[in-house]
Design a protein that fits this description.
This protein is of the alpha/beta class. The chain is built from three helices and nine strands; from the N terminus they run βαβαβββαββββ. It starts with a strand and ends with a strand. The protein binds inosinic acid and magnesium ion (MG).
């Protein structure tokens, strides 16, 4: 049986997301911001983070191919943004950055569209096994080298609805 052992509680997540929202609000200093959430993992985070940002924001989403377990995961956009991003301040929001391929691919793809600025926010940063450093502007939590589920993150598309973040363990 698989079960989740709580790692970050709902209260800890709420507090940290609130802090990220305050930091983002201060950094953009009244400017307009387009928040781009990567589906499906960020659906819960975006609901909370967008409410914690006190700026004129718009929200959009894109979806990627599913990650594979092998080394050569090539992320591709399968559902694209509805909004144009040219000349806009874009904040790309991820659930977790692990090896960094996904965020690197997204950064390159979005920069080709010439946004005014592009920053990256991730709820979780798991650095084990990362070969190339990634610029991450806002980080919620540093994650251990374990598989995490909940608060949007899945294992085989399940566990997303856990209101907290848990390590998935086999028992
Ligand atoms: P990357 O290794 O940074 O390219 O991340 C690839 C993708 O793997 C992420 O966008 C997540 O969807 C998924 N992923 C990586 N680590 C975890 C985890 O601990 N739990 C759930 N999904 C994960
Ligand atoms: Mg997943």
């Amino acid at each position: 049986m698989l079960y989740g052992k709580p790692l970050f509680t709902a209260v800890q997540i709420r507090k940290r997301v609130e802090e990220l929202g305050n930091q983002i609000t201060a950094d953009y200093n009244g400017e307009e911001l387009l928040i781009v959430g990567v589906l499906k993992g960020t659906y819960m985070l975006l609901a909370d983070l967008s409410r914690a940002i006190k700026l004129p924001i718009t929200v959009d989403f894109l979806a990627l191919t599913n990650p594979t377990n092998d080394e050569d995961y090539l992320p591709r956009i399968i559902t694209d943004l509805r909004e144009e991003i040219r000349n806009k301040n874009v904040l790309l929001v991820k659930d977790i950055v692990h090896k960094g391929e996904t965020v690197e691919y997204l950064r390159k793809s979005l920069l080709l569209r010439q946004p005014k600025s592009l920053k990256v926010c991730t709820l979780l940063n798991k650095v084990e096994g990362r070969k190339k450093a990634q610029q991450l502007d806002y980080i919620g939590f540093h994650a251990p080298d374990k598989f995490l589920v909940g608060y949007g993150l899945d294992y085989q598309d399940k566990y997303r609805n856990l209101p907290y973040l848990a390590t998935l363990e086999k028992k």
